[in-house]
Design brief:
Helices cover 69% and strands 12% of the residues. It has three helices and two strands, in the order ααββα. It is globular and about 30 Å long.
């Protein structure tokens, strides 16, 4: 779960940087729909929930 949800999060970020917001939205939504328990290791020393980050990214996309 962790690796797959991290994959979808990174994919969403790439699409967002490419200004393909619909594809980015789909990638972030995939996390919320299917991998909401996935976590990612932060180099500063803790795990964080990718679903929380995906929610923030979806809000960011909607504001544009």
């Amino acid at each position: 779960w962790n690796d797959v949800s991290t994959y979808w999060f990174i994919r969403g970020e790439v699409y967002q940087k490419m200004r393909e917001n619909e594809k980015a939205r789909q990638a972030y939504q995939e996390i919320l729909d299917n991998y909401s328990y996935g976590q990612c290791w932060d180099p500063r020393g803790w795990y964080w929930k990718l679903a929380d980050g995906a929610k923030e990214k979806l809000i960011e996309i909607e504001r544009r």
